[in-house]
Amino acid sequence: MDFKSKIKGRGAQKNIHNRFFELSHEIRDDFLEFCEKEGEIADKNKTQYLNVFPKTIVNKVTSPDVGMAYSMNMYQGCEHGCIYCYARNSHEFWGYSAGLDFERKILVKKEAPKLLEAHLKKKSWKAQTIVMSGNTDCYQPAEQQFELTKQCLEVFLKYKHPVGIITKNALILRDIEILKALAEDHLIAVNISITSLSERTRRVLEPRTATIKRRLQVVKALSDQGIPVNVMLAPIIPSINSHEILPMAKAVADAGAFGISHTIVRLNGAIGEIFTDWIHKTMPDRAAKVLHQIESCHGGTLNESDYGKRMHGEGQIAQQINDMVRLARLKYFKNKAMPPLNTALHESYKDGQLKLF
């Protein structure tokens, strides 16, 4: 198999047309030839951080099958560059491409901690778990510079409010003391995403994420400190990582995870074109096979939008994947479950300190 990345360190290999724009931007071969002759760089492949100023930060999730009621995202776009990421489509709403722009134009919400605090202090707000990274990873590389996730965790701790985290970045260990304090009152649940035990596969699927070894260390470090961890084996992609379900489940169970969850890859919206271009460039020997097997899980198309079907698919291959996950749970997670989060404390801490009367 030949894993070759045309654009170093990126998942998507091109920018695709934004469906909301009438005009499109194209890099022509004659321009590339001109740059080469002149010794100029046609594409510097740099990441840009762009400030944006939303009025709110907490979003109600209306989709019934994503496992969360409220989410918040300090960053839009994600430098991790996971080729399959469903969040790519959301970048089009900001006026950018779901391809390379999603990885290289990161929108930063510097007012996120203040907006969160204002939300938690509302008299009308009744505590429900708010998940950070409902769309993009709250511990992506931008967090090293801006520390918005850390500041938001401090807000959750101050107001004794339950919070969930989804990440695939080891930077979460920077905040382990805050997470331990939240865990003392059952206010935190962490979901670590692990899609393969193969570094070779990880590098092409998720080019700027933490290594698999490091992620397993994160699961163990958090678990050892009493911080509950679930591992998301997501997405499962037929003929890429579908054969790793049992080994992955064993590895995360050995590291102390409470459980696993999974989805089968679905290439909705612009992601179908991005993924198809990527797999023909990085895995040409198996591209057709993988695409056909994904289609077989979604009624003959790369995308399935129907609630109840889209996450776990249908058909023989999907059934085999789902059965294997059930077997993994029985084998490695019997009588284990993530503990419920505490929603009872927040009302007494609406002003940031315990109300005595």
TrEMBL record:
SUPFAM superfamilies reported for this sequence: Radical SAM enzymes
Where is the Radical SAM core domain positioned along the sequence? 64-310
The region annotated as signal peptide is none
**Entries under Pfam families matching the protein:** Radical_SAM (PF04055)
Task: Identify the keywords attached in UniProt to this record, alphabetized.
Answer: Iron, Iron-sulfur, Lyase, Metal-binding
GO molecular function terms noted in the UniProt entry:
iron-sulfur cluster binding; lyase activity; metal ion binding
What is this protein called in UniProt?
DNA repair photolyase
Q: Which organism is it from?
A: Winogradskyella arenosi
